[in-house]
Design brief:
Layout: E1 5-10, E2 13-16, E3 29-32, E4 35-39, E5 53-56, E6 59-67, E7 79-83, E8 88-90, E9 96-101, E10 110-117, E11 158-164, E12 172-173, E13 182-190, E14 197-200, E15 206-208, E16 211-213, E17 224-230
Parallel strand pairs: 6-8
Antiparallel strand pairs: 1-6, 2-5, 3-4, 4-5, 6-10, 7-8, 7-9, 9-10, 11-17, 12-16, 13-14, 13-17, 15-16
């Protein structure tokens, strides 16, 4: 029996083929799918098949090494997680929730402390709750292509601006436009006083701060422009 268990509050022992670590030893924290627990015996011991380990999935307090990988240390009451890569308990929220630290771990340190194991089958491996996601943590790389629906977009993302044409190499004032926005199309209607033709001038413009920047290009001083742009900022 694992001799690092301090108190078994509500034991739930069961033999399983542990997901991680590969070969559990008595007293090791382990992960079985979305559950965590502690190996009560070495793998294959206690009359179970060679690939199985008797694991307590219930409520218990055990003395287990915990590592601060985030920095700043771990306080009493902080959640600790099982990390598959290191086969240990850490404060990295990308792991599987294991339990609550009952003692302090210093910054960058690995310390054996009492941990209250809290069964959490609703939280699978590598899952976190909303409170654990820092502001700005979800980057573009984390969002799969074609997975942002119209309901998640600002209602006014597509903008159409009617503006007077300007001379060559002269910017056009566009209220609300910012660097980082995207100009979809700039159509030039010639001439403004009596429109007869429409020309596509999109390639001559770039989105700027409250203006469509035109470094060169056509003289549109007597024309009318329709500017279609995406408000990405």
């Amino acid at each position: 029996m694992a001799d690092n268990i301090v108190s078994r509050i509500n034991p739930m022992p069961w033999p399983v083929v542990v997901t991680d670590p590969a070969v559990p030893s008595s007293g090791d924290p382990v992960r079985f799918g979305s559950l965590t627990g502690i190996a009560l015996l070495n793998e294959g011991a206690g009359g179970v098949p060679a690939t199985q380990t008797m694991v307590d999935f219930g409520w218990f307090v055990a003395t287990i090494p915990v590592t601060d990988v985030v920095g700043g240390g771990i306080a009493v009451g902080d959640v600790v997680y099982y990390d598959d890569g290191a086969d240990r308990l850490e404060n990295d929220v990308t792991g599987t929730p294991f339990g609550i630290a009952l003692a302090v771990v210093g910054a960058g340190a690995t310390t054996a402390v009492n941990v209250l194991h809290c069964p959490a089958p609703a939280l699978g491996a590598n899952s976190v709750n909303a409170a654990a996601i820092a502001a700005g943590a979800v980057t573009t790389a984390k969002i799969a292509d074609a997975n942002v629906t119209g309901a998640k977009l600002a209602a006014s993302i597509m903008k159409v601006t009617l503006a007077a044409g300007t001379a060559a190499a002269t910017d056009v004032v566009v209220a609300g436009m910012a660097v980082g926005d995207e100009i979809v199309s700039v159509l030039s209607f010639a001439t403004a006083a009596a429109i007869a033709t429409v020309a596509d001038r999109t390639s001559e413009y770039a989105a700027g701060a409250a203006k469509a920047v035109k470094a060169a290009g056509t003289n549109e001083a007597n024309n009318q422009l329709v500017i279609i742009w995406l408000d990405k900022t």
